[in-house]
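Hi everyone, sorry if this is the wrong subforum. Our group has a chain we'd like a structural model of before ordering constructs, and none of us has done structure prediction before. Sequence below.
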Amino acid sequence: MSVNYGSKRIVVGAHYGLRDWLGQRITAALMALFTLIVLAQVLFTAGPIGYDKWAGIFASQWMKTLTFCVIIALLYHVWVGMREIWMDYVKPVGLRLVLNTFSLVWLVACAGWAIQVLWRL
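Answer:
Right subforum, don't worry. Here is the predicted structure as tokens:
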């Protein structure tokens, strides 16, 4: 008769669990709040919606700072989601590494572009 002292556990990213789940909820709430703030500014500003109106909304320092925080939150949110998709559905480790690397490089490039657009206003 064999004695079972526990099962062997294969760790494939399980240590991210609660931190990433909570991070996704917090970043989603921040992005939803930001959307409401921008929507309120668009609705309560008189005149037609054009470049001048959009530039005016994002011209103040507090709005640039809030937008920067939302960009960072969005990048983290997307990174966690994409990493989970690659871990769950892509089994070859080499391909998963390539996809993770491509995703990270793409997100950093998008962040650079978004920040350049934001601070050029």
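For your construct planning: The chain is about 75% helix and 0% strand. The chain has a mean pLDDT of 87.
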